[in-house]
């Protein structure tokens, strides 16, 4: 059993959630998927192995995995939530182009320094962190059809953020 799977089982037991066969097999498969996927994309991937899985079960499992800190819920430049399995070896943040939707994963050691400082100053213990930085990629900055700055800020403020757990279908 993988570390993630063990962690999930402990999380379910501790929270009094049912460790149903479907939840456990869905989680086991989700842990093998790399990248950022919407609920619909994950549903298509999982259905190949678990034909009788329901979308509601998958969504509930993703929510439990997010609560357990094993999956991140991210919001890029569209309304759909995207899910990514947390890999402690490859922690990263995301640069998101608001025009073309390009997503670049970055590993920034400065964030870690800032987090350490904040943790000390605020006596705050971090249990998780997701970061999406919004802007325009180099290609879109050179394109005159690209959305203007004010429109971009408008989209950012209405586009939801990583900390928001709202799910829009
Ligand atoms: Zn772009
Ligand atoms: Zn990522």
The rough form would be described as flat
Level-1 CATH class name = Mainly Alpha
Give the strand line-up of the largest sheet. Answer: 1-3-2
The largest pleated sheet is described as: 3 strands, antiparallel
Beta fraction: 5-15%
Bound molecule types: zinc ion
Mean pLDDT: 82
Please provide the count of β strands.
6
Unreliably modeled segments: 148-169
Number of helices: 7
The portion of residues assigned to helices is: 40-55%
Query: What's the alpha carbon Rg, rounded to whole Å?
Result: 18 Å
Q: Name the CATH architecture.
A: Orthogonal Bundle
CATH topology: Arc Repressor Mutant, subunit A
Distance from first to last alpha carbon: 33 Å
How many domains? 1
Order of helices and strands: HHEHHEEEEHEHH
| CATH-level-4 superfamily name | Winged helix-like DNA-binding domain superfamily/Winged helix DNA-binding domain
Structural class: alpha+beta
Write the layout of secondary structure elements.
Layout: H1 3-15, H2 21-30, E1 37-38, H3 39-47, H4 55-67, E2 71-75, E3 81-85, E4 93-97, E5 103-106, H5 109-122, E6 132-135, H6 138-141, H7 149-158
Parallel strand pairs: 4-6
Antiparallel strand pairs: 1-3, 2-3, 4-5
Helix pairs in contact: 2-4
The chain binds zinc ion (2 copies).
Residues 97, 99-100, 102, 136-137, 139-140 line the site of one zinc ion.
């Amino acid at each position: 059993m993988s570390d993630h799977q063990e962690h999930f089982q402990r999380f379910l037991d501790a929270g009094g959630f049912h460790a149903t066969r479907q939840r456990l097999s869905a989680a086991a498969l989700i842990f093998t998927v790399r990248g950022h996927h919407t609920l619909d994309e994950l549903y298509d991937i999982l259905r190949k192995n678990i034909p009788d899985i329901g979308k509601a079960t998958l969504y509930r499992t993703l929510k439990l995995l997010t609560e357990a800190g094993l999956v991140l819920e991210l919001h890029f430049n569209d309304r759909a939530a995207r899910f990514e399995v947390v890999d402690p070896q490859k922690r990263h943040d995301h640069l998101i182009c608001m025009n073309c939707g390009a997503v670049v994963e970055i590993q920034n050691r400065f964030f870690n320094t800032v987090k350490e400082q904040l943790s000390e100053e605020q006596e705050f213990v971090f249990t998780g962190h997701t970061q999406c930085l919004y802007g325009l990629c180099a290609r879109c900055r050179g394109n005159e059809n690209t959305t203007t700055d004010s429109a971009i800020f408008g989209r950012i403020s209405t586009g939801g953020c990583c900390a928001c757990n709202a799910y829009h279908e």
